[in-house]
Amino acid sequence: MMMQFGNVETEIEFFTSLVKADGEILKEELALLSITIPNLLNTFDFYEEGVYTNDCNRDWWCRWPIERVDVPQQGDCGMFVLKYIELLSTEIPLATCTSQNMPFFRLKLAAEILRRDAYMP
């Protein structure tokens, strides 16, 4: 599972390709983050006035919504999580990450690890 925090959108998105992952249970498990992250950012004065895209303001601590992003359900979730992190950090659409590409991605990662030049953001 991977999470993405939208600082401007003020939301938490989670990505999981594990077939057995129950979205509602995961939302319950992440509920404390929906309060902790905005409170922490507000405590450090991360935001200026008027930055919020939902109805929050600096005087009102609000809960960020938690959304499960619709991604293909796979049994090979470890490699998918690594690729999702790489793709999201470079703003490449997740649609480029398919099970057909996984053998190439695994081989590429193994070669990078052996050469000690694996991508480290």
Automatic annotation (TrEMBL):
Does the keyword Hydrolase feature in the UniProt annotation? Answer: yes
Bilayer-crossing regions: none
Q: Which organism is it from?
A: Prunus dulcis
The name of this protein is Ubiquitin-like protease family profile domain-containing protein
Q: Which residues form the Ubiquitin-like protease family profile domain?
A: 13-113
GO biological process terms, alphabetically, are: proteolysis
Alphabetized InterPro entries for the sequence: Papain-like_cys_pep_sf (IPR038765), Peptidase_C48_C (IPR003653)
Alphabetical list of Pfam families matching this protein: Peptidase_C48
Gene3D superfamilies (UniProt xref): Adenoviral Proteinase, Chain A
Record keywords: Hydrolase, Protease
Molecular function via GO:
cysteine-type peptidase activity
Q: Which family does it belong to?
A: Belongs to the peptidase C48 family.
